[in-house]
Amino acid sequence: MYIDESVNPRLPYLRDKTSKLTSSPGCYIMKDKTGNIIYIGKAKNLRNRVTSYFRKGQDHLPKVWKMVSHVNDYEFIVTDSEFEALVLECSLIKLHTPKYNILLKDDKGYSYIRITNEPFPRLQAVLQKYDDGAEYIGPYTSSFAVKQAVEEANKVFRLPTCTRVFPRDFKKARPCLNLHIKRCMGVCTGSFSQEEYRAAVEQAVDYIRNGSAQSVERLTSEMNRAAENLEFELAARLRDRIAAIQKAGESQKIIDETVPDCDIIAVSQNVDSACASVIMYRGGRLIDKADYFLGEKEDAGKMREDFILRFYSAKDSAPKSILLDEEIEDPGLIEQFLRERYGHAVHITVPKKGHLLRLTTLAKSNANEFLSVRVGRTGREIAALEELAKALNMSKPPRFIECYDISNLASTNMVAGMVVFENGRPCKKFYKKFSIKTVEEQNDYACMQEVIERRFRNYLEKTDEGFSTLPDLILLDGGNGHVNAVRPVLEKMNINVPMYGLVKDDRHRTRAIATGDGEISLLKSRAAFNLVTAIQDEVHRVAITYQKSKRKKSAFSLELTSVKGVGDKKAAKLITAYKTTEALKKASVEEIRATAGISLETARELKAVIDEM
Hints:
The structure is a single chain. By secondary structure, the chain is an alpha+beta fold. It is about 45% helix and about 20% strand. The protein folds into five domains: about 10-95, 3-Layer(aba) Sandwich (GIY-YIG endonuclease); about 110-250, no CATH class; about 260-375, Nucleotidyltransferase, domain 5 (2-Layer Sandwich); about 400-550, Nucleotidyltransferase, domain 5 (2-Layer Sandwich), CATH 3.30.420.340; about 560-610, DNA polymerase, domain 1 (Orthogonal Bundle). The chain has 20 helices and 19 strands. The strands form four sheets. Strands 12, 13, 14, 15, 16, 17, 18 and 19 form an eight-stranded mixed β-sheet that branches. Strands 9-8-7-10-11 form a five-stranded mixed β-sheet, with helices on both faces. Helix 8 (about 210-230) packs antiparallel against helix 9 and helix 14 (about 445-460) runs parallel beside helix 15 (about 480-490).
């Protein structure tokens, strides 16, 4: 988004002031017309950084555009180094909490693990503690960690999660599916004593409190003791529980002694908004998770850096390791800041493989889901747009995606379809259909050139409200040839929108994205792959449906013009007025005569032809 004097009349003054600014590192403090501080930033070079806000023709993200539109003046503080500027920036933001800096608001609440007060108690994750005689473990600050821990314990120890009441419901109904898939021990069968069941619950609680290693150690000791006492059935059950814990340890992410003390941070971005999720591991256990809404989206790398600084500026401690989902520009500077603040080294890394990568994936999934609730989109849709933007090296996820496809039968009834996806969903009110006008023989490249030129001529001339929105991404149903044929059309019209082709395999399925001189595979970006496949399928459906409709009308028109005195224009009048053969058959001779403007005798002859259709 561009800003000029019509938006902020103070821009000439601000540009003049900035031209005299020092090139030293430091902090800049933006103020509105009332003198309130609205933004604080740091810079390695003050003149270059501040100039970027007020430069003519500078393209800003929406959040930055809003901030600059309200800047009346600014102050600056020169420092000896970029690191000093970073420390000062954190201190000033904490003191003034400016409107356009990241202000962290999380989803905190307290959670408990509840062990119900009944003969066969259950393990539950709850948000409140009641005076109901149940045993409560907690409070915990992370409802996420509590839910995950309870679900894992119920799964490993095969505790029931159904609504049946025991022992009242023993043998009253057939066991549910959970017994058959070994997710429940089958208490409803009545084959477990109360003492045996309570022992399993105690083992599950021990597993939650102390972790898998200590649980395996205790259960192994109990199993050996049972075998020595010739209690082979009990020993077998304990053996199965040990195996379940060990198997769960291979894939579950809640209790893992191999994970060092660390925080895992991931950021999710929609078109206009962003949020961060932080998952905290201490002592090999997931102890907490927090989600923070970051407001309007800005530059991805800077947003992660700002979040880390804000987050740890409010913390009394930090782990020695911070894992990120994506790279940031200057991790060394932030590591130095954290080392100075906490008195020990803190390493920032981006895992590329292994179980640590699975943890950043978990954090990313949580960020996607948290953002999806805020913006009314599913986590899958947000992930798909993010993955697509990353694969195409776009600075932000595309909000509006337009896709085009050509359909024809030899050189007849040549048409094109245009579909629009907004925030990852079809937006059918913006769909368009084109009849090819300038191409007489089959030539998909020439047809696509005509369609693109007509679409963007409408945009430039503002003749059609449906064409008034400039897309963030253009996709063509075709390969590198289509991209190279159409790109000059956009360049000639000064339309600067990323454009790619969608390549299909021998089975007519989406295979890759064509760039014009190569291809980008989406096989490792499953959500993005599913999205572009859905877009390609939809545009093909629209184009082929329109082509079939045109072909049917063409055949209809051909039969009408077989009557002497009925030409193409008169046939078109009838087709436009009645649209379908069925409607035309219901028309009387007089109605046909009046609509087509023909004689009564010709109308009678035409009516006879229509009735035989």
